[in-house]
Amino acid sequence: MSDSNHSVSIAVLGSVNLDIVASVPRLPVPGETVTGADIRRYPGGKGANQALAACRLGARTALIGSVGEDAEAGEALALLRAAGVDLSACRAAHGFPTGIALIAVSAAGENQIVVAPGANRALAPDALTLPPADALLAQLEIPIRTLETAAANFPGLICLNLAPAMRVSRPLLHRAHLIVVNETEAAFFGDALHDGPGLVAVTFGAAGARLYRGGEELAAAAAPRVQAIDTTGAGDCFTAALAVAMVEHQALEDALAFACAAAALATTVRGAQPSLPDRGRVEAFLRKRG
Fold first, then answer.
1. Distance (Å, rounded) from C-alpha 261 to C-alpha 15?
2. pLDDT tens, position by position, 14-55
3. CB atoms within 10 A of CB 194
4. CA–centroid distance for 97 within its chain
5. What is the pTM of this model?
């Protein structure tokens, strides 16, 4: 649990997966077999990762999601439950398995990911229960119609992480107060990202991040230098941290630096959710960088 007083609240609408992670000396090229892997299992899914990150960074957090009626569901939700994330709107979908992500991570920290969505596909609009919150944080690993329904009915700030990249409606893009993408996703969406009235954050890995409105750069932050061993979940950590900072009304430069610091720390520990830092660690890291 974060050291913060949990003065802001965030509802996260998104995916829940169990990550099966193979750590390998290097990633295979197409058609190649790489052996000698070490296998671990971690809770994951972009929605679950962002919910846990927001909670650890100081927000009262609720997750709206869908899991299977299987043993993997409890494993996938374990760290969220331990952290105190509200899971009352996270439902078990009859006839669907819990989502699974197969992840290969190289010694340099780079990854390849294949996702079997399972119960995440069963998160339908008529099953939505949106708790009251200051902000709604969502991604694209659930049905788009569910996301559109939530965005149309949520009265607060909406943060949309356009990952994985896929076509979405113009009204949905315009409904978002904050859009977060990495540079690959930014290239996929192109100028459409900047057509709406909201803020757009673009991450560039080790080159940091920039914040735009209407295509005009408003803020930039460098990525702190760390010894990265696993980048899985770092983007989710950035998104959650930026959403928390925006709800707290941090200045744009400060909000971006806070998000970059949180994401950098998340690369220094293996596993998407075990790596997510708490508020105290991020603030101490920022003070040390000074």
1. 24
2. 999 999 999 999 999 999 999 999 999 999 999 999 999 999
3. 17
4. 21
5. 0.92
pLDDT at 143: 96
Tell me which amino acid residue 149 is: T
- Say how many CA atoms lie within 13 Å of 57 toward its Cβ: 35
Cβ proximity of 257 and 221 under 8 Å: yes
Measure the CA dihedral 186/59/67/172, to 10°: -40
Question: Quick one: pLDDT at residue 232?
Answer: 85
- What is the three-class DSSP state of 238? helix
Q: State the pairing for strand pair 178-182/99-105.
A: unpaired
pLDDT tens per residue, range 212-241: 999 999 999 999 999 988 888 999 999 999
**Is 236 part of the annotated catalytic residue set?**
yes
Q: Which two tokens stand for residue 23?
A: 């750590």
Q: Does the pLDDT of residue 191 top 90, yes or no?
A: yes
User: In angstroms, rounded to a whole number, what is the distance separating the alpha carbons of residues 29 and 14?
Assistant: 31
**Does residue 246 contact residue 37 with C-beta atoms inside 8 Å?**
no
pLDDT at 88 over 60: yes
Where are any strands of DSSP class E within the chain? 8-13, 17-23, 38-44, 59-68, 90-93, 99-105, 111-116, 135-138, 157-161, 178-182, 199-203, 209-213, 216-221
What pLDDT, on a 0 to 100 scale, did the predictor assign at position 4? 42
Bridge partners, 217 (sequence order): 212
Phi, psi of 165 (to 5 degrees): -65, 130
Q: Which of 86, 134, 230, 236 is catalytic?
A: 236
